[in-house]
Amino acid sequence: MRAGFLDGILSELGFKVTITGDLVDAELKQGDRDRIRETLDMIGRLLGATRLMDMYLKETADLEKCIEDFMGG
Q: Do 14 and 31 touch, CB atoms closer than 8 A?
């Protein structure tokens, strides 16, 4: 479930995402300095948000809501 959440967020941020099992591999190949700075800020927030995510993310239906909430701030 957490991999699906990460996939949704990273894809929205413009990353090319590949998931193999529970391994999430993402790469971002373009962007100007300001865009990269904003993306790094979001990645920091993402690390904090996913730390204990397995405790409250129980169903696939919850994924879209979590992604929407995260992207909304």
A: yes
Phi-psi region of 37 (alpha: psi -120 to 50; beta: other; left: phi over 0): alpha
Instruction: Please report, as a single letter, which amino acid is at residue 44.
Output: G
Query: What is the rounded distance in angstroms from the CA atom of residue 60 to the CA atom of residue 50?
Result: 15
32-62 tens-digit pLDDT: 899 899 899 988 888 877 776 766 677 777 7
Q: What is the 3-state secondary structure (H, E, C) of the chain?
A: CHHHHHHHHHHHCCCEEEEECCEEEEECCCCCHHHHHHHHHHHHHHHHHHCCHHHCCCCHHHHHHHHHHHHCC
CB 14 within 8 A of CB 39: yes
Q: Tell me if 67 sits within 8 A of 9, measured CB to CB.
A: yes
pTM: 0.74
